Amino acid sequence: MEAGARVFIPVSVAESRVSKRFDCIPSATLYPNADEIRYLQRLVLFRDSAIIVLNKPPKLPVKGNLPVHNSMDALAAAALSYDYEEGPQMVHRLDKESSGIILMGRTKDSTSHLQMLFRDMGKSQSRVKVWSDACRGMSQKYWALVIGAPKEKEGLIDAPLTKVLLDEGKTERVILAHISGLELSQKAVTEYRVLGPTINGCSWIELRPLTCRKHQLRVHCAEALGTPIVGDYKYGWFVHKRWKQTRQVDVEPISGKPYKLRRPEGIEFQKGSVLSKVPLLHLHCRELVLPNIAKFLPALDGPLSGHAELESFKPDHLRFVASMPSHMKISWNLMSSYLV
């Protein structure tokens, strides 16, 4: 062999699989590096043969358009296929600024069944009775910090939504549909309950969407309840401006004495908490309960037309709880310190 001669090495099966996964990434994005892949793998809460559940951090886009570098779906194609030929697919979406549980299907069958389940929020029309019964137990709960407090401690918001175009069609905004019903609208229903007293002019609430619409929780909080989510400047800019300019004086729930939430001395707060000048969005998908799709897939897609034998040792439902991001943890701890 002479100096400078080329040596051709055959590509292994494993390397061809890696190449196939990386080809799934949109052409206008850069390939994720090893650190980004390891970072996404650390977000995984659960993985089985049918699904992958992650705890999405804020500011990470879920679905990438051409200008977006390494959105979650692109990263998942490279980092979360594990021993499968193809990467997982998104079942539902979260806003870029929000955080919490996000579900991905590992196969085409599991993804399609779960997407239909989220579209109807637990109202499956399947001919398989055990699957339909299990779907009725599905629930999704969010925690949010809102400015102000709802008039009622708990309730049901049934307010249809519609979309309007602004800036000559360049931007889109979701609003409550007019009661006349003349415009196209989508049914949107949300259950809510208040988790504690109002502190620093804000309240923690739990939201349970019964429909799956774009910006449903943000619009329902801002326009239906009149309490926009902290950090939601799209739907609550003017309320944020007034809230930051007004001195907040609250009342202790036990003694009834007034107090003001102050920054404790000697503690550095991460940018984005409730005490920062520009808080991040305080909306987090905390809990998800859904049917164990890995158990029911043989009955849904098997050759026995819904009469396949199920693995009885597997649970009918799976429940996941995701910890809050750091800026929401700081806000929670600050406000909870007055409740001790």
UniProtKB/TrEMBL annotation:
<dbReference type="Pfam" id="PF00849">
    <property type="entry name" value="PseudoU_synth_2"/>
</dbReference>
<dbReference type="GO" id="GO:0009982">
    <property type="term" value="F:pseudouridine synthase activity"/>
</dbReference>
<protein>
    <recommendedName>
        <fullName>Pseudouridine synthase RsuA/RluA-like domain-containing protein</fullName>
    </recommendedName>
</protein>
<dbReference type="InterPro" id="IPR050188">
    <property type="entry name" value="RluA_PseudoU_synthase"/>
</dbReference>
<feature type="domain" description="Pseudouridine synthase RsuA/RluA-like">
    <location>
        <begin position="51"/>
        <end position="222"/>
    </location>
</feature>
<dbReference type="InterPro" id="IPR006145">
    <property type="entry name" value="PsdUridine_synth_RsuA/RluA"/>
</dbReference>
<dbReference type="GO" id="GO:0000455">
    <property type="term" value="P:enzyme-directed rRNA pseudouridine synthesis"/>
</dbReference>
<dbReference type="GO" id="GO:0003723">
    <property type="term" value="F:RNA binding"/>
</dbReference>
<dbReference type="InterPro" id="IPR020103">
    <property type="entry name" value="PsdUridine_synth_cat_dom_sf"/>
</dbReference>
